[in-house]
Design brief:
By secondary structure, this protein is an all-alpha fold. It contains five helices and no strands.
């Protein structure tokens, strides 16, 4: 479609899951306990900064970075109205269904 030229779209299901919901869904599919403990963002960010400082001295990669904390520690909400309007696109399965299918396919092959 000519209306899509030069535009950027979020290609996802409009039912946005939180990180907590997504991890719970993945744990459920994998048949492992759903994580119950939660580390506050500010503490995780501080710990990651300390790990980066130690990494700088030891020259070994940190196990956790502030970048990773920022990516996982923030809520994301993707608006998908534009792709539906411009390209008449609607996902055929939900994100939860996609998680189930992806993990089940990994286990098979």
């Amino acid at each position: 479609s000519k209306t899509a030229i030069g535009k950027v779209y979020n290609l996802t299901h409009p039912d946005n899951l939180t990180w907590k919901e997504m991890i719970a869904e993945i744990a459920t599919v994998l048949r492992v306990p759903v994580p119950e403990k939660h580390l506050p963002y500010s503490i995780a960010y501080f710990i990651a900064g300390c790990m980066e400082a130690v990494s700088y001295v030891t020259k070994k990669p940190p196990r956790l970075t502030r970048y990773a904390v920022r990516n996982v520690g923030r809520p994301y909400y993707y608006i998908t109205d534009q792709i539906k309007k411009d390209l008449v696109f609607a996902p055929s399965i939900s994100l939860k269904q996609g998680i189930h299918e992806y993990i089940n396919n990994l286990e098979k092959g």
